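#struct-queue
[09:14] JT: dropping the first one here, sequence first, then the structure tokens:
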Amino acid sequence: MDVLCALYRAYDVFSFNVIPVMGQVVAGDWKSYRYLVESIRQFPCQACSTVLVHIDELLLILLFYHHYTVPRALAGVSSLPH
């Protein structure tokens, strides 16, 4: 749990101190990037649930691909002449 706390703190420091500065340098807009960081901080569950949905979708695609292609590929290899 200490590792997670340290990562969370590092993310906080980075997001509140680096991202707005990068926004100022790249886009000339510090305030919008500060607002972005603050809004992500206020609504983290929504962002997390969206990411988790995408991860679930990716895992389903990978499982489907593995389930239907690997056995067929192995069957093709075993039927090759030796």
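[09:21] JT: and here's the second one, same format:
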Amino acid sequence: MSRFPLGSGTARHDRGRDQGRWTIRRLGCIVVLMSGPVDTFPTKWWTRLDDGRVRCDVCPRECKMHDGQRGLCFVRACEGGEIVLTTYGRSSGFCVDPIEKKPLNHFLPGTSVLSFGTAGCNLTCRFCQNWDISKSRETDTLADSASPETIARAAAEQGCASAAFTYNDPVIFLEYAADVADACHAAGIRTVAVSAGYVHEGPRRELFSRIDAANIDLKAFTDDFYRHVCGGRLQPVLDTLEWLVANDVWVEVTTLLIPGHNDSDAELNQLSTWIVEHLGPHVPLHFSAFHPDYKMLDVPPTPLSTLTRARHIAMANGLRYVYTGNVHDLEGDTTLCPGCGAAVIERDWYRITGYRLTGDGHCSACGTAIAGVFEGPPGEWGRRRRPVHLAAMEEMEEGAEPEEQP
């Protein structure tokens, strides 16, 4: 059952709008020229400084901005001496995905999830696999739009069990994500966050207290990697993971293994041991394969043997549920019962091919409880992926003529 009562109210705020035809924003030495009106939404996580700048307090980066400037994430800006969100109600696209794609293997298996993101990111990972969205500085990336209530209604109409904030990090658009989460819970839809977990304590609580399940991208287990490859620090991510477990959010962890950078036996031992000791042996861990992308085109793809080695190390250290990702690996996709060793969920990519759990998530062979969120039989969504255009839906509901699509 959801931790959130159905029918709870939706927290909303009034939205301002910059009606100028052209808006210029400067980020470092880059000037971005944006056409058309820019939506702005008031936020509360900021502090005015004595030198006239305003500090954004959402994440440990703590960008300090003069009026008219944007933070590194690009979507939080200083306007009128306050920090505003410039992408409220806008998205890079909506799509119905399998929940296993997030990846979440122990949260309502086989069900579909309405997924969406915006643009921008508060980290600078050189290996980013979604860089066309997360590093975007173009408003054309935000091609779709929808109110929180429209998203909740669309998820229900599409038969989705949950809605996911993904593709880029919801931390940077937390006001929009929080309102969508409230609307979803009011409609009986669960919420999922796919995040790097790089966020301060107050904003962490505001966002993740509204989340039913999260996959946190633990990019490595050294501060050196975070500083030099991602432009961040490790400890805030560990703090987020511990907060989620302590506050009963279902958590799964993903680490993208990059050859020669974060895949040594020593680091894999440290990472998996920390998860066992600080989060618990029941927390699923996903090791995903890297492919050359963005600013790491000179690094080879991760071989399956590396993922298998990492999986064996983590399981030897006491983790019960360890998976491989971004590769076709039936063994690495399978959930094993920690009691009797039986294969209780078999998967082929995102499609469930075998399911041996009771309705409440116990092994049908020995009765051992499998950690996770299980409700009745598994869904049958499989590997399908269905794009959904919510702006057209919203226009039609309001009685406006939808724009003709090419």
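[09:30] RK: nice, looked through the second one.
[09:31] RK: The first strand starts at residue 16 and ends at 18.
[09:31] JT: good to know. The first helix runs from residue 131 to 134.
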